[in-house]
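Re: that chain you flagged

S.,

Sorry for the slow reply, it's been a week of failed gels. I finally had a moment to sit down with the sequence you sent. For the record, here it is as I used it:
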Amino acid sequence: MHTYKKFLLAAAATLVMSANAMAAEKLRMGIEAAYPPFNNKDASGNVVGFDKDIGDALCAKMKVECSVVTSDWDGIIPALNAKKFDFLVSSLSITDERKQAVDFTDPYYSNKLQFIAPKNVDFKTDKDSLKGKVIGTQRATLAGTYLEDNYSGVDIKLYDTQENAYLDLVSGRIDGILADKYVQYEWLKSKDGMNYEFKGEPVMDSDKIGIAVRKGDTKLRDDLNKALAEIKADGTYKKINDKYFPFSIE
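Prediction finished late last night. Pasting the structure tokens below so you have them in one place:
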């Protein structure tokens, strides 16, 4: 009987260890889900987009089960640090300010900032020409910071989502938008965006986008970096890239 009890205790301990191991193999990825084509929701409410596909591919390489947790953009880094999710794959620019709050992986794509405005408008993008104009951009983004730091005399209107900036552009409430080129590239192909175009050259062409983890979470960061290198090497990254863009954004 005593031996049987030992067996039961050992078996129970094994089950607990197995359960803990299984629990450790589950990760949550944080995504805004309002920034197409990088992240959005489809008609059924499922999160889709380039960021989601990259996150899924990385989880497959790491052999972990991942779920999606959505968050408003304004609070997305605080949500990561509050442990609402484990890593953040939501087109987050790597900046010195953000490095104080989170740790970043290697970049998983590169972006540029560029203005868009109506096709039939002579819209010059130099600082003097933009004085007095109303320019929209999403709040707490690299584009917003760039406008505030470099364009004095411009009326900057901040939006909670990129989609709301587009709505005001179409309605004539703002003169133009500064945002990520590849996000605007997608919108310009849409019915709403067909009467608009890129203006001038990109004002910043070295925007590196990374995956964020909590400060000190070096194992997860290293695992993500290893998986990122693997999906780039085996062609998975290119397949995802080509699904959304006819050119490389790496």
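What I noticed first: Residues 3-23 have pLDDT under 50 and may be disordered.

Talk soon,
D.
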